[in-house]
Design a protein that fits this description.
By secondary structure, the chain is α/β, with parallel strands linked by helices. It has helices spanning 50-57, 97-107, 114-123, 139-151, 169-186, 197-203, 237-251, 257-262, and strands spanning 8-19, 22-34, 39-43, 65-70, 73-74, 82-85, 157-161, 189-193, 206-210, 217-222. The strands form 2 sheets. The chain has a 6-stranded mixed beta sheet, sandwiched between helices. It is globular and about 50 Å long. Magnesium ion binds next to α1.
Length: 266
């Protein structure tokens, strides 16, 4: 039985990819329990399996061994209670924003909840942009649309894979504030992948650090700052100290033999 406060449980997640040139050991025995309403980030070196883990949580591919359970039930395919936001907004270029947001409902044979979508568009600052084509919107605005798309089904879990990695620093700050506000309003569980330690610290209750490939859970940091967190906390001594502690921890991860091998294939 799941503990009542553990909504999403990653239980000994291990993943190998079979490729033409052999097996790639992407994830090794990762166990993390995430509570309802919790905001957690996954950080770690490039190629350590963060996306692999998130895809398994979204039911987009299976693990080699171990399992992921939502409310005690193993996930083996896309789940209506889990929304996903990727680094690219992945909007269909030939549909306007409104029709892009209706698309997931069309392919799942459901009627779109137009009111909810309009409300969400207003909420993220996209009010009045429904008839714009994706190319007419900035990267930040496109990413707002993809957040609306993920929230339109009202999932209780939101998975975000480096959603702001391609945005400029100013837009990224704005998006981080927006995510914080949405999280405080909706209290959805958010699992957030980022390369930016300050971003992870700003947003999260907990930051889980994965080791270099094969990804293992190296450490978990609990972030103490009260909410709401204004952007200005990123300028404080306390904030720097937490960021630097996590950075130092990542730099001192022992290098695995796989990583040494990987060095041969940059
Ligand atoms: N479909 C795939 N086939 C083979 N190898 C893959 C595939 N997807 C990812 N990998 C490899 O698995 C490892 C982890 O990848 P990924 O999960 O994308 O890492 P991260 O998101 O942390 O950068 C990397 O070495 C990557 O090259
Ligand atoms: Mg990735």
């Amino acid at each position: 039985m799941p503990k009542h406060n553990e909504k999403l449980v990653i239980d000994r997640a291990t993943k190998y990819y079979e490729t033409g040139t052999g097996r790639v050991h992407a994830l090794d025995n990762v166990s993390i329990a995430i509570r309802d309403h919790e905001f957690v980030s996954l950080v770690g070196p490039s190629g350590c399996g963060k996306t692999t883990l998130l895809w398994s949580m979204a039911g987009l591919h299976d693990l080699t061994s171990g399992e992921i359970r939502l409310d005690g039930t193993p996930i083996h395919g896309p789940h209506p209670d889990i929304g996903m936001v990727f680094q690219d907004a992945n909007l269909l270029p030939w549909r306007n924003i409104q029709r892009n947001l209706a698309f997931p409902f069309e392919i799942s044979g459901k009627s779109a909840n137009e009111d909810r979508i309009l409300q969400l568009m207003e909420r993220v600052g996209l009010g009045g942009f429904g008839n714009k084509m994706p190319r007419e919107l900035s990267g930040g605005m496109q990413q707002r649309a993809s957040i609306v798309r993920a929230l339109s089904f009202d999932p209780s879990v939101l998975l975000m894979d480096e959603p702001f990695g391609a945005l400029d620093a100013f837009t990224r700050d704005e998006m981080n504030l927006l995510v914080e506000e949405i999280w405080m309003e909706t209290r959805k569980m958010i699992v957030f992948i980022t390369h930016s330690i300050p971003e992870a610290v700003f947003l999260s209750d907990k930051v889980h650090v994965l080791s270099a490939r094969p990804g293992r859970l190296a450490r978990t940091f609990t972030i103490p700052f009260p909410r709401p967190r204004p952007l200005e906390i990123m300028e404080t001594r306390e904030f720097f100290d937490v960021v630097n502690t996590i950075k130092a921890d990542i730099q001192h991860q022992p290098k695995t033999s796989n990583q040494a091998l990987a060095g041969a294939y940059p």
